[in-house]
Every structure is written in structure tokens, then in C-alpha cells.
Hints:
By secondary structure, the chain is mainly β. A 9-stranded antiparallel sheet has the order 11-12-13-14-28-24-23-18-21, with no helix packed on it. The chain has 1 helix and 28 strands. The mean pLDDT is about 95. A hairpin with a 5-residue loop joins strand 23 (about 260-265) and strand 24 (about 270-275). It has one helix spanning about 70; strands spanning about 5-10, 25-30, 35-40, 45-50, 60, 85, 90, 95-100, 100-105, 115, 125-135, 135-145, 155-165, 170-180, 180-185, 185-190, 190, 205, 210, 225-230, 240, 250, 260-265, 270-275, 280-285, 295-300, 315, 325-334.
Amino acid sequence: MxxxxxxxxxxxxxxxxGQKPTDVDAYTLDTGEGLAVxxxxxxxGLVEVLVPDREGRTGNxxxxxxxxxAYQDRAANPYVGSTVGRYCRCVADxxxxxxxxxxxxxxxxxxxxxHGGSLGFDRYVxxxxxxxxxxxxxxxxxxxxPDGDQGYPGALRAEVRYQVSPDGSLAxxxxxxxxxxxxxxxxxxxxxxxxxxxxxxxxxxxxxxSRAVVFxxxxxxxxxxxxxxTGSRLDHRVPKPVGDRKLDNCFLLDDPAWAAELHDxxxxxxxxxxxxxxxxxxxxxxxxTGRRRSGLCLETGPLPxxxxxxxxxxxxxxxxxxxxxxxxxxxxxx
Length: 334
């Protein structure tokens, strides 16, 4: 079958905080060789990833919600499949300093800021443009975030490009530029379930990490170095089942060769994640109301509270620079 790109309008947003209602489009990027991806312009969200199992039967391997209304309902939608920003991790006390100036962010997680605020990038309709070249299917989505948006300085132009290849890979490519010094860290918040449904307890997880962030009871990093995972239950350098353990951790990657690998023994589906980012957040969806443990988040990106930590890789973006982030998901079945 030939590769195709299809577009349809699926509904209209309700509008948030003075925004006008806007049409939402769904794009289907179908390789014609087993892998197909559905992306919505609302939240630049990954809604379906259709992948064959070892018998050639195709199933959706990301959690999706029933309709657009559900995606707009914050109580029902904990960032499902969304592009998250302007900063995709927590910022302690909702504040940080740049060049001696304190900036205060929207506090949408108790006393703290997380995932870009209560009106983060996941709540906007992005502009989209699709293209096909040499079998590679691409969807580029753009969003302009004004100066002061959720408390962030600088007007930011953000871009995410989904690329689907006939070799069975899905890439996320992020870029951003700014008019003033600011913070940037973008990621995708898909809940992966390679079985196509049920719980993720039987999935086998490997993570290329010997260290993880140490959090307090509010999931804010504590002072001091990351924890050595050697021999602990969080040491996933050797693949092991997720089981019924609660995972909500940020792993520092040991090298750029690979980040994580997820395997479902029942279907044979395997997903290997490669990234140029320093860390991967792993979350087992224990707090996902009504769909507890229905998927596993593997969020590549910066470290949590990096804006306030000199010992973490920097997340600053200055005018004239371009923020870049590339993560690739390779699918296979065995």
C-alpha cells in the first residue's frame, strides 16, 4: 500500500481564558506498511500509534480518550498524548531567576509549577502543515507563546515535527526560538501500552540509567547528587517486568546510545527509545483517574527543577539560539 496523509476536522474547542473557539484537525500519517500515527492539532497531541504485533495484527499502542471534549477536560485528561511546555517538568515554588531577575510562574501543582502551567502548550490548538518526501511522512506544528505566558519571559515560537518512517519508527523533533532569555523543555506525554489495552504490569522495561533524581514527598528534587540505582528495584539496566510497582521517577541517562526499551510479551511488540536529551521520566499512571496503570509514560527531556539547580544541565534559551530536541521511537515485534 502507498503511504498517505489524511486530514479531517473533528470538532471545535470551547476556548480557554478568552481564546476564541477554534477548529481542531486530525492528521493520519499512514506508511502503508503497518505503522500509522494519528495527531490532533489540539495540544499537538499524539492520539493513536497503530503498530502490528508478531502475528501482523495492528493495534493502537497509546492511551486515547473518547473525544475532543474529554481532551479539553482537565479532570479527565492528565496531558494524554500532549506536547508539554513551555517547561515540561516541575519548577519548585513556581519561581526561578535569570540574570538576577526573579520570574514567578503559574502555580498549578499546589505551591509549584509543572508542565507549563494551567494553560500550557497542551491547551492550545497548533498550526499544522503536512508533507511527504521519499516515503517519510511529516507533520509540523507551530505555536506562538507570548511574552509573560504563564509567567515565562520572552515571546517563544515553538515547533514540533512528527516524522513517520516505513522502517517502523516515529520521531519527535522539537525546536524553539525566543525574543528574550527564557526557559524551554518540551516533551510528549503519551501513555504507552504495547498490548493495546489492559494494565501495563506485564510489560518488560529497560532503562539505560544507573542514577535517578531523589524527590521529596511533593516530587521536588532534594539537594545533593542523584541516587545510585545499582542493585535497587529501580535498576532497569537489565530488563524486568514493571509489575505492580508505582513508578514516578526521573532517570539520568548513562549515554546517548539508547534511553529505554519497552516490551509486551503477549503481543511481541517492542518499542526502543533513543534521544539526545539527558533524562527520561517514567510514570506508571497510578494517578490517572479511571484508567489507573493503563499506560506507561516515557518522557524524554530535561531534569526537574533544572532552572533552580546549577548542578543540572541548563535549560536556558537566549535570543539568537535555537532549542532542539529529538527523540525516536523504534517499533518491532518478536
